[in-house]
Amino acid sequence: MFSGIVEEAAKVVAINRDMGNLNLTMECSFTNELKIDQSVAHNGVCLTVINIEGNRYTVTAIQETLDRSNLGDLKVGDLVNLERSMMMNGRLDGHIVQGHVDQTAVCKDVKEADGSYYFTFEYDFNQEMAKNGYMTVEKGSVTVNGVSLTVCNSKDNSFQVAIIPYTLQHTNFCRIEKGTKVNLEFDIIGKYISKMMKY
Fold it and tell me: Is the pTM above the cut of 0.90?
């Protein structure tokens, strides 16, 4: 369980294919606090730590994860948003995030707005999935590359988010531009409500 509050945008230092799996090696400031078998969100995808060496650690993404996320597009040197699992005795500063990415979206526009930025994202809309809560709502929550954000200008297949300078500087939003693919996780509460309304 995560909150969507990114701890660090860390660099990918190695990528290795192992049949259908992808091993990602990251370099980050809190590697010495990690343990084997610990869960860490990578661009919003919950992955398990399988190896630790110095200030580097490795996780594995299976094909299902690669099909639903942007992790398969990563290159050495790319920045990945990292968040360790939520501590149950702490504040929930973002929203409830599972680390189970639903699908990807593409950045369609970035506009500067008096020191902040508006990012517009477009995703493949499926009416049946939308009925199950896979959608955005005005002023609702959405996770983009693991970042908990508030939705504005919600449409059937697109939405905007406002990014403050701090978030831009401390996440990989600093590298998102028109055409960049990002990971989406829709709000789990919305999914449950949509499901319950069917019965």
Answer: yes
User: What residue has token string 């999935």?
Assistant: 129
Q: What single string gives the DSSP state of each residue in the chain?
A: -B-S---EEEEEEEEEEETTEEEEEEE-TTGGG--TT-EEEETTEEEEEEEEETTEEEEEE-HHHHHHSSGGG--TT-EEEEEEPPPTTS---S--B-S---EEEEEEEEEEETTEEEEEEE----HHHHHTT-S--TT-EEEETTEEEEEES--SSEEEEEE-HHHHHHSGGGG--TT-EEEEEE-HHHHHHHHHTT-
- Separation CA 15–CA 58 (nearest Å): 9
Return d(Cα 9, Cα 145) in angstroms, integer: 11
Which tokens belong to 115? 């020191």
**Which residues, in sequence order, are bridge partners of residue 150?**
141
Strand partners, 120: 109, 160
101/81 Cα distance (integer angstroms) = 14
- For 166-193, how does the pLDDT look when each residue is reduced to its tens digit (9 = 90+)? 999 999 999 999 999 999 999 999 999 9
Enter the tokens of residue 176. Answer: 């998102």
